[in-house]
Design a protein that fits this description.
Length: 134
């Protein structure tokens, strides 16, 4: 099993103001933050990875070794969306582009399936709520 698979991972529900919800695995260790969804073949339809950083900042993401395109959502400390990237393509080169940094500092980044931002009509400024699943 790969170290960045959902085995023994906390799950958060990420609620958007329009009623749409994602089930987000938590990435809060240096390894999980570095690799994100790398090596994953896909996500469930309502799946996501919630990257949680120790501090707010100008965090960037890359898609090295991703197997699918993703949408990226940067969220600030108060859980407002501050930046969006649609359809970030996977990269299998030695040097991969970085996405971000956001125009405002972010504490969280949500990685989800490409097309989610458009399908759910996600907008900068939307306020999200997170709920830990037990």
């Amino acid at each position: 099993m790969l170290f960045n698979t959902p085995h023994q991972t906390e799950i958060f529900q990420i609620n958007f103001p329009n009623g749409v919800a994602l089930q987000g695995e938590v990435a809060n260790t240096p390894e999980k933050l570095l690799f994100g969804l790398a090596f994953r073949e896909g996500l469930p339809p309502d799946g996501a990875l919630l990257l949680i950083y120790d501090e707010s900042g100008p965090h960037t993401v890359w898609t090295k070794a991703f197997q699918m395109p993703v949408d990226l959502i940067w969220v600030d400390e108060s859980k407002h969306i501050v930046h969006l990237v649609r359809d970030a393509e996977p990269c299998n080169e030695d040097r991969c582009p970085r996405f971000g940094p956001p125009p405002e500092n972010a504490r969280y980044i949500i990685e989800t399936s490409a097309g989610f931002i458009q399908k759910a009509n996600v907008q900068v400024g939307h306020e999200l709520t997170f709920a830990l699943h037990m």
